[in-house]
Amino acid sequence: MNKRITSLAQACSWLAVLTTVGVILLFLGFLGWRGIDTINSALFFGNTPPWEAITGRLPVWHGIWPACVGTLALVLLSSLLAIPLGLASGIYLCQYASGPWKRWFSLAVELLAGIPSIIMGLFGFALILFLKKSVAPQANTGLLLSAGCLALLVLPYLILLTQTTLEALPHELRLAGLSLGFTPWQNMIHVLLPAAGRGILSGVVLAVGRAAEDTAVILLTGVVANAGLPSGLFDKYEALPFHIFFLAAEARSDAELAQGFGAALILLMLTAALFLGAYYLKSTFTKTWDQKDLMI
Amino acid sequence: MGPKRPDDLELAVVVEDLHVSFAGREVLHNLSAEFHRGQLAVILGRSGSGKTTFLRAFNRLNECFPRSETRGSLKLKLQGEWRDIYRDNVPLTELRRRVGMVFQTPHLLPVSIADNLALPVKLVLGLPRRDIASRVAWALEEAHLYKEVKDRLDAPGHTLSGGQQQRLCLARLLALDPEILLLDEPTASLDFRAALKVEELLLSLKERYTIIAVSHSLSQARRLADKALIFRDGSVVQQLSREDLQISDTSQVLLEEIF
User: Fold this and answer.
1) Which among B64, B93, B158 is the nearest to A293, CB-wise?
2) Assigned CATH topology for domain A39-293
3) Better-scored residue on pLDDT, A60 or A292
């Protein structure tokens, strides 16, 4: 009887894994089939000569280059805002907070994690309206506002993963440094944070991926279909997810729809490149640490 | 030359009326004891009798556990000066560097063999970079480990065997120039041969340091101890000299009483 249940459970697990992998392959295959042919210099730059487009000397009208640059700028800016804040909050929650403070802060972080991205976009939009009517009549939606709202959106992933990874480190590791006379700060910087590097990195990767693909937040806070390369922190910009959404909804020809599939493939590759970059950063950051022996 | 009598030895630690509790539950009560420099004292007792808590009182490591409270006095002679670590303002970093601790299982930092020593030397002692390598080599030599690891100093610490890891932990303490060594069942996780090596090392070190070791084995205490303190329910119930420990009748009574 027991044996039968075990083999049934095993079969179910295999089925689950195969389904997941199958769906991903199907999805990638479909995207590739529809999009791979469109990936050429015209997809990126339209009729503009590439070099002129890359250097920004000539505007790009029918290409996704400005949207790629916009998405990269958005991801970098929101990471710059969210990563230091998220790490610091996670360290605080793990190391220093206690009692009711810890409960209240954790509750706040969980609430933040539960907020849908469209609400975050509305919040940014309302903020601009408020600023317009009060202290800054010239305020408008733009790159910085979107990055700020995206940072708020991804902050909970960073905080929770930093906190849980640090808390999951073995107590002995904590004691080892302290018993040698390290200050709590030295222990955090030289022992605990590097040991928690892998978990924290997965928080960063999640955050970056989420910031790169989110459409709802930027829809209300400054993205437009045609803006050219982003020219400043307070200016409108283009972004890949919005571009894909726009093409999918309003394509006027098969060629435009195909460009949408191409853009989706490029967005996937861009996110993959960002992940690889994050892994590379981690390996230089923790190169003296023996990864396979870390107990996480 | 026979073993030194306690009268010839320099007093290094005086514990008076020590009480330690966690979350209101008292683990050590009314504990008093003395330890001498150049002697190896072994603490014996059942598990749960407060041995480890007692050791952790010396470097104030009990404070890393939730809701701990310590009362009483614990005076250490550090750098030739008597300091009550719970009353005088002894900086924690200084205290923990002078009072080193080895745990039951090796608590390595997850870095290379050399960095396990170099990191504390750099952070705690603040030695200039050019002096660190020689300090590391010296400490490894002191811990009888240099020959075994000199060709793989950059390998991860965890690639060493259990006994080597425990000696690496000892080397790490020695590099910080301590005066008191606390050893919490340092051979508990080792096989017989590795344990003997650690014991040999301790015997070679005891002339220069005050060593307080917790042990679970009476035979180990007989091999190592200049004196033994028997713990029961958080207090010392008996003190034995080296000679007392060698008498088999005493040992028999002890065995029945505490184990």
Assistant:
1) B158
2) MetI-like fold (1.10.3720)
3) A60
